[in-house]
Specification:
CATH superfamily of the largest domain: Vaccinia Virus protein VP39
Distance between the termini: 66 Å
CATH topology of the largest domain: Rossmann fold
Order of helices and strands: EHEHEHEHEHEHHEEEHHH
Number of helices: 10
Helix content: 25-40%
Oligomer: single chain
Largest sheet: 7 strands, mixed
Structural class: alpha/beta
CATH class of the largest domain: Alpha Beta
Length: about 260
């Protein structure tokens, strides 16, 4: 390979351990995957193993000029998109469903998952490495201190697995935190039995004030007066997906009366 390896950018810590890279690449469930997009390939440590998978339509998207130059030199056969994944139109650029993989930059990982959520009918699978704290938050269930907005919203549409933890010493520069690899596969759900936009507002309103009882956060966010609801005395981490649907339908009913 020729070219100069890029430096750290956009909060990304480059993976330097080939065994870990191969392990991440092997988390992909290849059955039915015709299109694969790697986000933020950086130095291409993961890219080489993904090329070996033989997915018919394999592309990478990279925003950093230095990384793009290096990847062009190291993998001349690679289909490289120069751009920002968060702004990339998946529906316009992929005819079929797409699997997404990557060593995701820690500082935008939550935004990546919200984008996947918005494109849930296009993204059939996601496998990738993120900050361990974010991974724990995503897979958490009711009753956990890490249960939160992404925990609730993603699980309506994806089956989520925490696969393994990655120590800091396999990165350069070495991060101050551990990383983790998760996998999400699209389930058969057509969505919750409520207004989805309102559901998102309800979930965010409650978890933005997670120490408060649901009563206080909902009344404040939606300007609801003395109306009562049986979930009001609980905190958001105490209720499950169906409870959030019921709460959303109740909020909609109250708002329609105003």
């Amino acid at each position: 390979m020729t070219g100069v390896r890029p430096k750290k950018h956009l909060g990304q810590h480059f993976l330097t351990d080939k065994a870990t890279a191969k392990r991440i690449a092997d988390t992909l469930m290849l059955e039915g995957v015709d299109s694969l997009l790697e986000v933020g390939p950086g130095t291409g440590m993961l890219t080489g193993f993904l090329l070996e998978k033989g997915v018919p339509d394999f592309r990478v998207i990279e925003i950093d000029n230095e990384s793009v130059e290096y990847l062009n030199s190291a993998y001349p056969e690679l289909d490289i998109i120069k751009g920002d994944f968060l702004k990339y139109d998946l529906n316009a650029n992929f005819e079929s469903k797409v699997a997404i993989i990557g060593n995701f930059p820690f500082n935008i990982s939550s935004q990546i998952f919200f984008k996947v959520l918005e494109n849930r009918d296009k993204v059939s699978q996601l496998a990738g490495m993120i900050q361990k704290e974010v991974a724990e938050r995503i897979v958490a269930g009711p009753g956990s201190k890490t249960y939160g907005i992404l925990s609730v919203l993603l699980k309506y549409y994806y089956n989520i697995e925490y696969l393994f933890t990655v120590p800091p010493d396999v990165f350069k520069p070495r991060p101050k935190v551990e990383a983790a690899v998760i996998r999400m596969s699209r389930n058969d759900s057509t969505g919750p039995a409520c207004d989805e936009k309102l559901l998102k507002r309800v979930v965010k309103a409650t978890f933005n004030h997670r120490r408060k009882m649901i009563r206080n956060s909902i009344r404040s966010a939606f300007d609801i007066g003395e109306e009562q609801m049986n979930l009001f005395k609980l905190r958001p981490e105490q209720i499950d997906l169906d409870d959030f649907v019921n709460l959303t339908n109740w909020v909609e009913e109250v708002l329609n009366k105003k």
